[in-house]
Amino acid sequence: PPWPPALEPPAQLLHDATLCQDLRRSLTALATGLLPESKGIPVADVFTVRPPVLGEPNTLVCMVGNIFPPAVEINWQLDGIPVTQGVTHTHYTPTDDLAFVRFSYLPVTPATGDIYTCIVTREGDNASVIAYWVPQNPVTSEVLETALCGAAMALGILLALLGIAMILVSRRSAHGKARTPGSPPVGR
């Protein structure tokens, strides 16, 4: 279709775009080293995709937030030894707070005593953010259910005894107020 007459012609648009790019390059060259660079301190958190069970395959997730500018390197270690096999990373995803978030995944089969480490390094910095994940010996759900049931039963019995004791005390005090020693019974 023909170019709409109300818009600038393509040659003028190209000229304006070139002018903007040249102006940006000039201002960047003038401001480099004079203006402080805005940087966010990355925050890392490590968790599993499914509830962890020792000896069963799972996936560890290292979620790195508050990334700005979007340029970090994420590495994994198991007991201090670098792990690269099976590691995958997502793209940088913008967040509402004008920063970025990035995920890294590591397939694992957790065992007792393992220490997994997610190391986040921002390009050009001498500091790293480190997050650890150590598999715990989970209490089996049957043992936990039995313990909770026993505790609830004990609490119920205790409260029932307390209720009976309170009823007996209130009846005694009601009978004691109705008759005082040495007075005839009420209603005769």
| Overall geometry | elongated
Helix-and-strand structural type: alpha+beta
State the share of residues found in helices, binned by percent.
25-40%
The low-confidence parts are none
Number of helix segments? 2
Relative strand content: 25-35%
Task: Please give the alpha-carbon distance between the first and last residues.
Answer: 114 Å
Quick check: average pLDDT? 86
SSE string? HEEEEEEEEEH
Any idea what the radius of gyration is? 35 Å
Strand elements, count: 9
- How would you characterize the largest beta sheet? 5 strands, antiparallel
Domain Ig-like: 36-130
Organism: Pygoscelis papua (Gentoo penguin)
Pfam families: C1-set (PF07654)
Transmembrane segments: 150-169
Question: Can you summarize this structure?
Answer:
This protein is α+β, with helices and mostly antiparallel strands.
List the helices and strands and how they pair.
Elements: H1 10-31, E1 43-48, E2 58-67, E3 72-78, E4 81-83, E5 88-89, E6 93-94, E7 100-108, E8 116-122, E9 128-133, H2 141-178
Antiparallel strand pairs: 1-2, 2-7, 3-4, 3-8, 5-7, 6-7, 8-9
Task: Explain the overall architecture.
The chain crosses the membrane at residues 150-169. This is DMA protein. Residues 36-130 form the Ig-like domain. This protein is α+β, with helices and mostly antiparallel strands. The chain has two helices and nine strands. It has helices spanning 10-31, 141-178, and strands spanning 43-48, 58-67, 72-78, 81-83, 88-89, 93-94, 100-108, 116-122, 128-133. Strands 1, 2, 5, 6 and 7 form a five-stranded antiparallel sheet that branches. The chain has a four-stranded antiparallel sheet with strand order 4-3-8-9, with no helix packed on it. Strand 6 and strand 7 form a beta hairpin. It is elongated and about 115 Å long. It starts with 9 loop residues before the first helix and ends in a 10-residue tail after the last helix.
